[in-house]
Amino acid sequence: MGPNGEQVGIVRIEDALRLAQEADLDLVEVAPQARPPVAKLMDYGKFKYESAQKARESRRNQQLTVIKEQKLRPKIDPHDYETKKGHVSRFLEAGNKVKVTIMFRGREQSRPELGFRLLQRLADDVAELGFIESKPKQDGRNMIMVLAPHKNAKAKSKATKDAGEGS
Length: 167
Prior knowledge:
By secondary structure, the protein is α+β, with helices and mostly antiparallel strands. The chain has 2 domains: 43 residues, Translation initiation factor 3 (IF-3), N-terminal domain (Ubiquitin-like (UB roll), Roll); 88 residues, Translation initiation factor 3 (IF-3), C-terminal domain (Translation Initiation Factor IF3), CATH 3.30.110.10. Helix content is 43%, strand content 25%. The strands form 2 sheets. Strands 3-4-6-5 form a 4-stranded mixed sheet, with helices on one face.
């Protein structure tokens, strides 16, 4: 490819290097896996700078995912459950994922359905804020489930707060 992006066609390497020297540019291989490989006449320093700018811009647009963890026990007191549910709700409203872990001890390990039922109950209670990203699964002594916020959870909670302040 030429310096202005025009197609030059298949050229021998020696001829391409000579063209690059005459134009005071560099011969840069842009698609080495293609057959034949694609090279372009360009200023390599400028190309490197622009690609770094694109990479920096794409990193800026990435969303950082934070995973919060909440640990429960199968025989949790109703008040403690409500407190933990409040924490999970707060995390989901903030737009964070929540990893809910149920820790089994001793004979509780023979009754994993208690943990499964508790995780389902928690997921149903916070269904308006988030959804189950990964279903409950047993992992040794623990049972783990991941809840993720709905896509518009942040916007929805902000809108309800703004509406409440206006009255």
